[in-house]
Amino acid sequence: MTYTEASMDGLRQVGDELADATVATLFQRGEVGKFNALMRYVSTAGAPLPDGLPDVARDYLEATSVPPAWVDWGEMEKARLFFIDNNVHISTALSFAAMPACYVVPHVAKLLSSTHSLEYPSKRMAETGQFTVHLMQPDAFEAGSRFIPAAQKVRLLHASIRHHLARENRWDITSLGTPICQEDMIGGQMFFSLLVLDSLHRLGIHMSVEGAEAYFYAWRVVGAMLGVDQDAVPKSLEEARQFLDLYMVRHMGPSEEGAHLTRQLIDLYEEVVPGTFFDPIVSALIRHLIGDSCSDWLEVPRTAWDTVVKTVPHLLGVLETIEDRSPLGAWALDRLGHLTTVLELSSLTRGRVMHYAIPEDMKKDFGVSDAVPRARRWTPPAVAITAWPPTR
Description:
Distance between the termini: 28 Å
Strand content: under 5%
Number of strands: 0
Mean pLDDT: 81
Number of helices: 18
């Protein structure tokens, strides 16, 4: 598929018809509070829907309770194994590349600033981490899993944000397009898939072609569950590169909101890192993964660690060698990666389970080893646009 300015402009005008209609009806009938109260305790797939659930919500939940018919379960298992093998690296890429990339798109940063409590910035990272962990469980799409209910609720949350911003005239649709439009939803999917793979490559992580493609495929499934238009979404990593390059050239740049959100993210992870000596590595990792131009736009501080962090790929290369040559070493490193991810998620959630709900109003002050020979190592698709980054 070829993406053009015109096709991207068309995606800016479209939201999610099913979820938008469901949320609009719930608000029209005054049933949002009832829905949230009943759904708070529905967190696993296959659980009986509670009595008293509004009919429109029941219809939505039944319609979205199963994954797309086209899912290749063999690919999903490859993705799960890829995640197990690289979970700590993926968490690093999500935290220090994918999230800052969201902030470097001014209208996305503006939306995030207007819809998230500034008193609990870790909520964004905790929800993303928890969502990814749910996705990569062996039973993610079976009865008892937590992923499908989370996806259903996130989709309604996005629709509620569109509803509020449009109703309260807090979003300039003429210049900014529909909030959380199809272009931005696909852009987010690219951040959490292709950009994460790019970041792993930049860190020197060995990835097979099959593993990288499976991880990208898993996020295609996620996008479908979250209401992304499957006729418009990239189907391959090459198409993803074309979309992401054009999306960033169209939209990325500096903004006050982006710099503020980045400062929050840096402060948050400096609190998670023990002591203060290693605090600058947070900023250094962001600079290493998203580059100096984007980092300058986000006002990421320069530190003495900017040079030190460039040795990380060499260190990870040593660990990968140990993993490849020793089954015991591979087991130990996988367990260490799992425990690190759990500890990070526990720190971000502060021991809480993240619940997704439809906000009834917007507060004004809300500002696995794939065992493939290294000869088949995955490398990112070439850039689709040569003028990178654009000058503004």
